[in-house]
């Protein structure tokens, strides 16, 4: 992913140098297990442990000759090692024993980083929802004025959506945090399963129960689909901010720096550019999910068609998601809210926002439903609603937004339960 949408802690996990560092760690752990089995001399293990992690440049140089990254890495890893020790490196293993086990470890750490960021976004949403729990605003359905709600209620819905994403990501982390060291076509023919157990336990990974030489790619699909869903939930927040930021609405505004400039030509512009960026990034995340679905069906025990796809899609999906949720947390934390504008939008309806309350009162008073509905509907023509009701012979009291929030505390209690997760 380009630097613009990368945060350093996630980008570092997916750097080429970090990949080679993890590969070296897997090779050392595998050699440890072989020593414990009595297949590799302890003296060789000391040399393997002392070996330097190859540089990206050196592996690339060797790969130009070999056209095989893993063999090039192994050659570079063993360059300064005595031959009597180098011959024990990678014993009984095939390339993807190394690649997929290291990948599972990197995915687990990346998920932990992402989940932490998503939990912070959840916390910011909960705090903002509590702050604005009683800030009345007009609810809208189909983009049209409906009836009153509160801004805190809106944010509570987003907070619970993000909480569901946390749980989806935790489930997906469990599925991708696996490795396999089972040899060619996954039969353990030339390697003892103890090596796999030793390596995966040391890395905190589970084991692929029936490896085909590679880890099953449906695991990765589950993760990227969870990430795409997370992106859509962030997009929902961003779209709401964009809609409420329009000039004729202006109920909220994105946080601005002191030197903010919104347009090269129009100095008055205050564009919701962060929210628009979050929306665009959600589209990228949905695209990665589609790519990863294509990787599930490989030829026989394995082929290499998945490799080029996941070299891009996995790091990019995790990096973009991490950037997106971090930016979303900053957006919500600094969001400017204008309660007076929200109340004005309710009053702008000239009482129409209360039509459902009037209808309910009349029905409870014994009026016939179809006739009463039509009368209330006829009175709701954009002029003063209650004046027109009286011309229809209907006497109704003017309620306030509080009328629609009589059971609001029920949702607030649920929000408080979510708030407890932050502690």
UniProtKB/TrEMBL annotation:
Top-level EC class: lyase
Catalytic activity: (2S)-2-[5-amino-1-(5-phospho-beta-D-ribosyl)imidazole-4-carboxamido]succinate = 5-amino-1-(5-phospho-beta-D-ribosyl)imidazole-4-carboxamide + fumarate; N(6)-(1,2-dicarboxyethyl)-AMP = fumarate + AMP
Stretches the record annotates as Disordered: 254-274
Single GO molecular function: lyase activity
Family: Belongs to the lyase 1 family. Adenylosuccinate lyase subfamily.
NCBIfam families according to UniProt: purB (TIGR00928)
Protein name from the UniProt record: Adenylosuccinate lyase
Species this chain originates from: Streptomyces caledonius
């Amino acid at each position: 992913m380009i630097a613009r949408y990368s945060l350093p802690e996630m980008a570092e996990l997916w750097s080429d140098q970090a990949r080679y560092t993890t590969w070296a760690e897997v090779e050392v752990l595998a050699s440890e297990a072989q020593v414990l089995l009595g297949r590799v001399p302890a003296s060789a293990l000391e040399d393997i442990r002392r070996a330097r992690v190859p540089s990206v440049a050196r592996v690339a140089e060797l790969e130009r000759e070999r056209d095989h990254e893993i063999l090039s890495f192994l050659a570079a890893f063993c360059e300064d090692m005595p031959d009597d020790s180098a011959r024990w490196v990678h014993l009984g293993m095939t390339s993807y024993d190394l690649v997929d086990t290291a990948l599972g470890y990197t995915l687990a750490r990346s998920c932990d980083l992402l989940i932490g960021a998503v939990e912070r976004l959840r916390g910011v949403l909960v705090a903002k929802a509590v702050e604005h729990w009683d800030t009345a605003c007009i609810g809208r359905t189909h983009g049209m004025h409906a009836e009153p709600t509160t801004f805190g209620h809106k944010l509570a819905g987003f907070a619970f959506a993000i909480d569901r994403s946390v749980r989806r990501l935790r489930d997906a982390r469990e599925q991708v945090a696996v490795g396999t060291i089972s040899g060619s076509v996954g039969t353990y023919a030339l390697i003892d399963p103890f090596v796999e157990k030793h390596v995966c336990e040391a890395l905190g990974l589970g084991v692929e129960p029936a490896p085909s030489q590679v880890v099953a790619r449906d695991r990765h699909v589950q993760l990227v689909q969870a990430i795409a869903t997370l992106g859509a939930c962030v997009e929902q927040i961003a779209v709401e901010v964009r809609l409420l930021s329009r000039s004729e609405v202006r109920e909220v505004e994105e946080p601005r720096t002191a030197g903010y400039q919104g347009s090269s030509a129009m100095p008055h512009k205050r564009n919701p550019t962060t929210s628009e960026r979050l929306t665009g990034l959600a589209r990228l995340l949905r695209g990665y999910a589609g790519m990863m679905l294509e990787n599930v069906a490989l030829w026989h025990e394995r082929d290499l068609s998945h490799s080029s796809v996941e070299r891009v899609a996995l790091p990019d999906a995790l990096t973009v998601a991490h950037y997106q949720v971090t930016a979303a947390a900053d957006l919500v934390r600094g969001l400017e809210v204008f309660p007076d504008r929200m109340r004005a939008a309710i009053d702008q309806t000239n009482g129409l926002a209360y039509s459902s309350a009037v209808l309910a009162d009349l029905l409870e008073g014994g009026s016939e439903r179809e006739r009463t509905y039509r009368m209330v509907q006829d009175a709701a023509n954009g002029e003063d609603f209650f004046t027109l009701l009286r011309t229809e012979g209907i006497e109704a009291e003017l309620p306030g937004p509080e009328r629609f929030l009589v059971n609001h505390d029920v949702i607030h209690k649920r929000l408080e339960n979510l708030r407890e997760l932050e502690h």
